[in-house]
Structure formats: C-alpha cells, structure tokens
Amino acid sequence: MSEASGPLQELPCPNLLHPPRSKRKSCLGSEATPTELLLQRSPRPKHPRLVSRAKENVFVLARRSRRRRRSASGVSWDHLPDELLLRIYFCLPLQDLLRVSAVCKRWQRLALDESLWHSVDLEGLTHTGPALQYVLKTRVQRLRCPRAFVEKLELPEPRSGSGALRLVELDLSSSIISTSALQSIVCGCSQLRYLSLEALQLSDTIVSCLAKNRDLLQLNLSGCSGFSAAALAELLGSCCSLEQLNMSWCSFSRNHVQSVVQNLSPGVTALNLSGYRDSLLLDDVKVLVERCPNIETLDLSDCTLLMADCFPVLKQLKKLHHLSLSRCYHIHLAALSDLGQTLPSLAYLDVFGFVQDSQLAALKKDMPRVGINARPFSSVARPTPASRVTASHPDQNMWSRRCRLRVRL
Q: For the whole prediction, is pTM greater than 0.85?
C-alpha cells in the first residue's frame, strides 16, 4: 500500500454509509472523507421539467393547473349553481329553452324543472302531439292548446303521486284529438279548476274521469257529444264547487237536459243551456231556478219551446244580470216590454232573431236601463271570449291571464 492511502485505515466511523444520526455530521466532516462518499450523502438536485437556454437566461416551462387555467378565461358554466342557472333559464323563450335542454344531461334536468313550465301556450303548432307530450312531462299547471292537431299521444299510466298530472287550467277547445289520447290526459288529472273541451268527442270514461276533479270552478263542454245522461249526472253531482257551466249545443236528449238541471251545483252563477229547441221545457226552468237561486248570467237561446210564461219563474232569480233569449220565437214582443219591471236587477238582454230592427227602438224606450243586444257572444266558462278576438289582435289570454311560455311563429 502507498503512503497516501494509509489514513483510510484509521477512519473514526466504521460504517460511513449508515452512521448514527448524532455522529453523521462529524463523520462527513473528516478531512479524509473521499469525494465520492460526500456526493452520495448530499441531497439530489431537482431536475426541471423542461429547461431551455436563450440569451443566457433560464426559462422553466410548466403546464398550468386546470383550476388556474379556467379562472384566467372567466367563470365556467359548470361551476354555476343550479339556482343561478334556473334563474337564467327563466328568462328564455320556449324555443330557446328547448335548445338548452339538448346541451347536456345536467342542463336537460334543469331545463325540465317544473318551476320553468308553470304555464305554456302551444297555440300555432302544426303538429302538437310531440310538443304536448313533452310539456305534460314537465308537470305544467296551466296549458293553453286550442285548435291543436294531435295524431298520437303516449303517456304513462295515470297514478297518484309522481305520475299524476298537475294541470289546474286546461284549454283544448276545437282540437282534433282522438278519444284515447284525450282520455290519457283527462284520466291523469285530479286538480283541474278550469277546463274547456269545447267541440270535442267525449266518452263516458272521459266524463267519469272528470268527476275526480271535485274543485272544478268553470267547465266548458259546449258542442261536445258521445257521453250518456248518467255519466253527466255523475260529473255534475261530484263537482259541488262549480260556478260557471257551458253545456250549449251538445248532442243532448231530454234525459241529458234533466240530468243538468237536477244535478247542477247550487252555487252556479253563470249557465249556458242554449240550443235545445225541443229538449228544454218550462218545467226544467222551474227546477233550475229552485235549485240555483244565485244565477247571474243565464243563456236560454234557441230553446224554442219557451214562452212568456217563463218570466214569472225567472223573476225568482233576484241576482239575474244578463239574460239571453235569442231566437225564442214563441215569446211575444209585448211580454218583453214588461220584463224590465219583472226583473229589476237585469242589465243586459239578448233577443237576436225574433225582434226586428224597427222594433228595437220601442223596446229600448220601454227598458232604458237595460242594454239590448249589447253582448252577442256568450263568455260563460270560455277561456278566451269571442268578443275579445279579432284578426289583427288575437287574444292569447286564458281565463284572463297569459301563459309565460308561448310559441313564436
């Protein structure tokens, strides 16, 4: 051995690779410690991810974190809470709300929230079936869909709880819809308060399902057909809160008329029974007046079997405000002249068809407080009275209120 290697044999620490922690500093500080061993015990230098030298400067290129990258470009839509997105969706029209629902599952869930679909107007669509099926799934409460064309409608079996519809106001007047599709809608309803099925083909099943809606306030079945007198009696007997009823020009027999007057709710204030030329008699008027003394609006137009002897009976209606006797040809003009004194509360009288224009002046002179032929259209239980609809300014209200979501044509 050479003389230079001699001190290595006399190291004070016998195990340099694993010295005791208390003596590790002193061992490494020996003057005879080899350089290789010092490098093994020193901490390793940190290697940069990517180093480039340019103009003798060192730049370290590293990828930003996902969080910093999003915050630099603005707030992410994914970070917005549901409440804020719902508030934004509330300002969207119907078509844009449908587009939003196709973006992703979360947006679809929020776009179908029932708070956004409280009231919907689908008037104007060519094929209403798919849109109607979509809207009914949103638990809509006010639905305006007159003059609709519904070819096919598939709804889940109605059941109490989550599957039942929450419709409170429904207008399907003058629509083209099958009885099976209409039945699937009506049988899922139990909270209806305003309903118009004018000019639709019904069935006993549909009418019996309507009887579940005991809180009905206004019912318009004008021009309907396809149901029996027994089903009608069940419906009217169940709806004890009814205030307005329009049963004009239905395909009624004598039994149907009797079912109406004998089962009508005593709280009815507006009634339209026009169009029963050979079915409504004086005896029916007597039963009606005795059962419903609070009637304010009564339309008996085109009941041609009525004569002036019905006036003493109508006198019992102390609150009668509007009476329509248009085309009741057996009532003489002389009897009408005394009607103003017979009915002191009367404000409007319709006598279209059997009073000539030349006779109107004399009748108005005898009844100065009464408006003669001032209201040609009946508004009883109708969601949109015909008197408010014009070609240039169509009325889109439904029972005096407009739906929030509407179709833009």
A: no
DSSP 389: -
Distance of CA 409 to the CA centre of its chain: 20
What b/e readout covers 120-147, taking b as 16+ CB neighbours within 10 angstroms?
bbbbebeebbebbbebbebbbbbbbbbe
Six-digit token string for 154: 């598939």
102-158, pLDDT tens digit by residue? 888 888 888 888 888 999 999 988 788 888 988 998 889 999 999 999 988 877 665
Neighbouring residues of 1: CB distance < 8 A, sequence distance ≥ 6: none
* Among candidate residues 387, 394, 390, the one with its CA nearest the CA of residue 409: 394
Structure tokens at 371: 């408006």
- Residue 398, H or E segment: strand 397-398
Comparing CA positions, the residue from 367, 264, 383, 356 lying closest to residue 323 is: 367
Q: 397-398 and 401-402 as β-strands: parallel, antiparallel, unpaired?
A: antiparallel
| Spatial distance between the Cα atoms of 364 and 348, rounded to a whole number of angstroms | 11
CA atoms within 13 A on the CB side of 205: 10
